[in-house]
Amino acid sequence: MSRPHTKWSRVALVGIGASLIVGVFVLAFSWPSVTSSVHGIPLVVSGTGAPADTIAAQLTENAGDQFDVTRVDSRDDAVAMIESRDAFGAVVADASVPEVLTASANGVVVSQIFTGLATQLQLSFTQQLTAQGVAADAVPTIAVTDVVPLASTDSRGTGLSTLSFPLVIGGMIGGVVVSLLVVGVWRRLTAVVLYGAGAGTLVVAIGQGWFGILQGDPVLNGVAVAASVLAISAFIVGLTSILGPRGIAIGAVLSLLIGNPISGAAQPWQFLPEPWGAIGQFFPPGAGATLLRDLSYFPAASTAQPWLVLAAWIAFGVVLMSVGHFRNRAVITPSPESLEETDAAPALV
Hints:
Blueprint lengths: L7 H28 L5 E6 L3 H13 L4 E6 L2 H9 L5 E4 L6 E4 L5 H24 L11 E4 L11 H5 L1 H18 L3 H26 L7 H26 L1 H15 L16 H5 L3 H14 L6 H29 L3 H9 L5
Parallel strand pairs: 1-2, 1-3, 4-5
Antiparallel strand pairs: 3-4
Helix pairs in contact: 6-7, 6-8, 6-9, 6-11, 7-8, 8-9, 8-11, 8-12, 11-12
């Protein structure tokens, strides 16, 4: 027996609705790059004399909100702030010739910005010395020093930037598979933990051992990858335990269409429209991307926040699994009172 033809009204609704979904995906993934702008870059100016005061004042006045300028006393202090990722770059003005410090491990875009800043400073420095009678060809060149360079195996940083998206997809896949194929709160929890551990091992083996994208301690990197994947998969499994299949959709939307675009994986989160960049650091994609970059290139940076964010999402997922499990048991298991009422009820003839 053939199925009846679909009503034309339903055909129109399905077609238009599906196209709206495409529009949502395009908006989610293009919005960050279209609306981002260079602003709030943490910049350090080192030095205690008049040249440092002048450069700091010029940057604050002319650069607008492009830089967030902080003063330190020495070049060593500036390097320490860059290595701890409290600053993305610095202008060293405590010597006769200024120097620009950068960290390409923050991304190629950041390096280009500081290279452009060095060019502007060179022009001003040349004008100042030529006005004092120094020949133009005798003016010293302002050096640009990469304090934290990218690894030669990922010299453009594209590998590290794009690694975040597979981890988001991986977390979603794990959550969906465990939700559909595993029953029981302890079994589901064991499954997602094993999935996260396996994902961490494989990603580090490929991303660090093979391609050289990740740097630093492979064990810590593996734990970070496992936590990033587990934070998403445990949350989706937990939602599904309570809401059923709708939990998969909600978890996917939060992870893929909200958390991933504002993660700051492809560019510094400071570039995103406020306050979305900061908010993105409290979602698993943003916390995971920041954690992997810090572990790979900025071991002196504090990683407490991303670890805590990932741990909180994992714990939230476990709580949701437990709530869903015990709620379902309460629904399925009849109470003693209901059994007594059933026994006492007269049989129907």
